[in-house]
Amino acid sequence: MSKDRPAPQPPQPLSPLVDAHTHLDACGASDAMSVKAMVDRASAVGVERVVTVADDLEAARFAVDAANWDPRVYAAVAIHPTRANVLDDATKTEIERLAGDRRVVAVGETGLDFYWPGKLDGCATVAEQTAGFRWHIDLAKRLGKTLMIHNREADQALLQVLREEGAPEMVVFHCFSSGVEMARACIDAGYVLSFSGTVSFKNAKALREAASLVPTGQLIVETDAPFLTPHPFRGAPNEPYCLPYTVRALADIRGEDPEELARASTATAERVYGLPAR
Q: Is the pTM of this model over 0.90?
């Protein structure tokens, strides 16, 4: 993301939509007023609800606060796999406390990231990530909440851990970025795949092929803002209001009407996260 590129103009409204994974704090929200302003911008183009996601303890506290400040905001809390080396007993206790809040709809983002170890100073090792992932799976099952997965270059390892631990009733692969083989494995397991702006990228041929296979009832949409701004705004700042750009690109890939895809993805998000139906 480049600060030199201007933010995209608001898209034509597309309603109803749920941004299934965003980071309001990383987008610049810091208090109730700034959260409201950000969600107001999203609501103006049909993105009526958002799930703001944590990747560390500070972000988890913010996510829960934001979800209690604004009824259009829900939260997901966890420690990101690359930070799993901070998961001591005190951190686990605090994450579990936060995850129990009534406004928290998922344990996430957790999972495995095999890209960063050895490249990023202080990154959790594969062994630390795997232990942290197993703990988050157990937490999601104990709380009866959806498990939200981050996966980077770890397809088979993730599936193996889920088999070994026993997956929660509801599993979401956030920002799905793998190919057809992984998509079919997730579909067969009953997991839900969430697509972000990456599906609109011109070099994402394998991802677009995977996106065309996913049954409507196993597909949701997200921004992962402030990252992964959809084409043709790649590299510009992202926010939840940009979601209609991704949905229209995804509808084109799947040969579907964007309004029908918006309604279907929202119904699936409502089921996945236990949100009130609209």
A: yes
Alpha helices in the chain (DSSP H): 32-43, 57-69, 89-99, 126-143, 155-165, 180-189, 205-211, 243-254, 258-273
Closest Cα partner for 77 from 68, 130, 164?
68
First to last CA, the chain: 33
pLDDT tens for the chain, 278 residues: list them.
Answer: 556 789 999 999 999 999 999 999 999 999 999 999 999 999 999 999 999 999 999 999 999 999 999 999 999 999 999 999 999 999 999 999 999 999 999 999 999 999 999 899 999 999 999 999 999 999 999 999 999 999 999 999 999 999 999 999 999 999 999 999 999 999 999 999 999 999 999 999 999 999 999 999 999 999 999 999 999 999 999 999 999 999 999 999 999 999 999 999 999 999 999 999 98
Q: Which CATH number fits domain 17-273: 3.40.50.150, 3.20.20.140, 3.30.70.20, 3.30.565.60?
A: 3.20.20.140
Rounded (10°) angle between helices 57-69 and 32-43: 70
